[in-house]
Amino acid sequence: MRLPNRSAAIAGMVLTLGSAAAIFLGSHGLRDFDPALTGYAIGALMAAFAVGYRFLIWAQRPPARMYFKRGLELVFRPAGAAALAEKAPRQSMPLPHGAGTLGYALARNFVAQEFIRRRGGLRWIMHLCLSGGCTLAFAITFPLVFGWIHFESFADNAEMYRVAAFGVNVDSFSVHSFKAFVMFNLLNISALLVLVGLVLAAFRRLTDPGERATQSFAEDIVPLLLILAVTATGLALTVSYKFLAGRDHAIWAIVHMVSVVSLLLYIPFGKLFHMFQRTCSLCVSRYKRVGATGLRAHCRRCGEDYTSAMHVADLKTVLDELGFDYRFSGPQGEVHYQDICPACRRGLLALNQGRTIGR
Amino acid sequence: MNTAFQGNEFFLDPSRCIGCKACVQACAECGTHRGQSMIHLEYVHRATGVQTAPVVCMHCEDPTCARVCPADAIKQDDHGIVHSAAKPRCVACSNCVIACPFGVPKMKVELDLMMKCDMCYDRTSVGKKPMCATVCPSGALYYGPRETIGNLRRETPVNEFQFGRQTVRTKVNIMTAPDVKALPFEVLDFLPWEGKDFDPFELSRPGAPDAASAAVWDDAGLGPRCSGNCTCH
């Protein structure tokens, strides 16, 4: 029997206890905590454990660990970066370091998702709708569920609402104001955004020959169904209290909670975990920038510059950790296959095959 | 899905390649390739000869590309097909490009995405032939039953390669001499300049592409020859 991974379990516990502490402190010792939302809070804490556990399991694998290690070294220790890039002249290190580069990468890759636009316009709009709608919805519901933000009417005027964040009054508005309309309907707006994204995703998955051939129900369809369930049941709550005088509201509330908790618990185990895995791309973009100006690797067969020397050295380490040994030795000496460029490897396949059949 | 492959296998014989590039054109038409050609048509030594060799993904049983992927983006399915990187996960690090022993994955810089030969999965999964094998006029790329190719060729197929100390088994077969059980791979014999008074960088084409950031044979992807921050100058 495989024992649970200790550091991953610790990471999961830390994230869960941290979230629990944030709920307790942020809700003024649970005074602002809404008991009706307890199910959501418990679901969020369970998901926090699973996300922490899964993240560490993933980040401990040799290739991911190497990028996180190098990423942190290169961002926080510019001097160390020079050493990593081996003999690279200090003045050639790209500037700015750290926050500037990180902020740019965050804005470009996580907010604007520019790389998806290059993969396809419709695909980009679909992803912006899905990720934007879900982020907006979580940005509203998590603070409400955790008791960080709560609304209450004035004691002397039921038509005036007060907004308290972390127990401090930050705003007040009339229930008839435009601001109230927007605030009370933000979740519906996010649901509509998500619905647009879901329709576009469904269109792609039904019509694109490439997607139809390679998609799988568990990996690609289940997350869309879970998001659809959350969106549809959330909108059903609005329909119930706005147009049906609250009919079946209690049932829809339970169904909605079950769908949200299911989605939260699915995140660490399926496709949606990519939202956490993409943090690795920040390390990779930094790694590539440093590698581009540092010492380069030249193919031992053709002499061409094919990647950074740091990349080749790190991959040799990763391959060793994974149990691959691509070292050749003979009377002429030794060579690691990582020192041969991909183009020469393709040529060598033909040369070796030709040799065995005498051509 | 139950029509997949139907006892057909892929057989590669680079020695039969005539360099017509029909496979390169056909490859781009595959549904899963989205207009991108995934096959490599390699000039074995451009400076001294016209020999060409097509290289498709060999679909390793234990794919090195998938194992070195930091983002779990490369998946092998139940049929043993190793697919292009999953779009949500690929972080465009090029680990797979540099680690693949056959030099197969391509980093599509403009898409921030690794794409590779997936044996035309949209076709083979419903019982059709891959595009390249459909159009290859010389039989360098053959897809069909093992018995048929056994009757047609002197060479016999193997799917095991010995890269130095590393044994690699693949789904795709390569044609070799009848007595060969695993294709022995030699590198040191093909390093013409090592140990001799010869400058390897004379072989370097000015403006050669960086394998980690461009499609290797694609002239449009040409970058600067060298950063200058190395020992080659």
Automatic annotation (TrEMBL), chain A:
Keyword Membrane in annotation: yes
InterPro entries reported for this sequence: NarG-like_sf (IPR036197)
Keyword terms of this UniProt record: Membrane, Transmembrane, Transmembrane helix
Entries under Gene3D superfamilies matching the protein: Transmembrane di-heme cytochromes, Chain C
Record field: transmembrane: 38-59, 124-151, 180-203, 224-244, 250-269
UniProt superkingdom: Bacteria
Protein name: Major facilitator superfamily MFS_1
Annotated organism of origin: Chthoniobacter flavus Ellin428
Automatic annotation (TrEMBL), chain B:
The protein's name in its UniProt record: 4Fe-4S ferredoxin, iron-sulfur binding domain protein
Organism, as annotated: Chthoniobacter flavus Ellin428
Domain of life: Bacteria
4Fe-4S ferredoxin-type domain: residues covered: 8-38, 48-79, 80-110
UniProt xrefs under CDD domains: DMSOR_beta_like
A Pfam family matched in the record: Fer4_11
Alphabetically ordered keywords of this record: 4Fe-4S, Iron, Iron-sulfur, Metal-binding
GO molecular function, one term: 4 iron, 4 sulfur cluster binding
Matching InterPro entries: 4Fe4S_Fe-S-bd, 4Fe4S_Fe_S_CS, ET_IronSulfur_Cluster-Binding
